[in-house]
């Protein structure tokens, strides 16, 4: 059960009234007698320091009406615990992130941290990569832990995710490759959301400056893109461009993809769509403000206003609004590298 100490650790202000302390204690299930015992203990520890200007309560216990909170004294035990485990755990495990987190976060993660320590102490860091389910089972006995139950976040927190050479399991990334691009020092990659656009562009891939054409398959690209370095280990630098439906869902996919992968908009394709008559529909799609702002930043103020007005009136542009001939002309003749 949570205690008055726990309440004070999470209390953001540096001072607190006696009334607030009592309310917090009683709300946590303590009796008034328990509250008085806790108050005397916290005063004795120096965690709660009376504010003289606030005066003293008229109750017989004689507590102050207001207190200054010395929160660092409450965290000393937690920090000592972290220091103890830092000495016990394998040297590859970095516990420093837990100093900025509530002690409950460490307590929740501790069973998994102990399993990680056992693995590392007996096996060491792996020299070869492994799919996430296999590595997950070897680490904690649960093949779903890394990808579905928060394991990736924990491993990242302690600096182990990359060191454990984990590669994700997702549906294979579908793409076409320019056979003469292998020796290039810089590679351009175009990701398109829909199959029709992929098939429309595919015939002229060898006539462009691009090394690959990737089929995003809607939101599937958010996972499959992680396999790109394994499926297409081209040496050199890489630049990824994205073209999807100009609607709220397409904009959201781009936004989510940017959180996972370095990608920019293939703006000329979108600008070509804006020259066409928009389609009404997809009123069920929800707007993500952050995604919209990120998307608009790639366009001039005039085009931003145009797109905003269209979306607000429930119009959109599907990729298919551009014919195969138009797509191919843009892809071949736009100076993408400037």
Question: How would you describe the overall organization of this protein?
Answer:
The chain has about 350 residues and is of the alpha/beta class. It contains 16 helices and 12 strands. The protein has helices at about 5-10, 20-25, 30-45, 70-90, 105-125, 130-140, 145-150, 150-155, 195-200, 220-225, 230, 250-260, 265-275, 290-295, 300-310, 325-335; strands spanning about 15, 50, 65-70, 130, 165, 175, 185-190, 210-215, 235-245, 265, 280, 315. The strands form 4 sheets. A 5-stranded mixed sheet has the order 6-8-7-9-10. Strands 1-3-2 form a 3-stranded antiparallel sheet. Helix 9 crosses helix 16 (about 325-335) and helix 12 crosses helix 14 (about 290-295). The mean pLDDT is about 90.
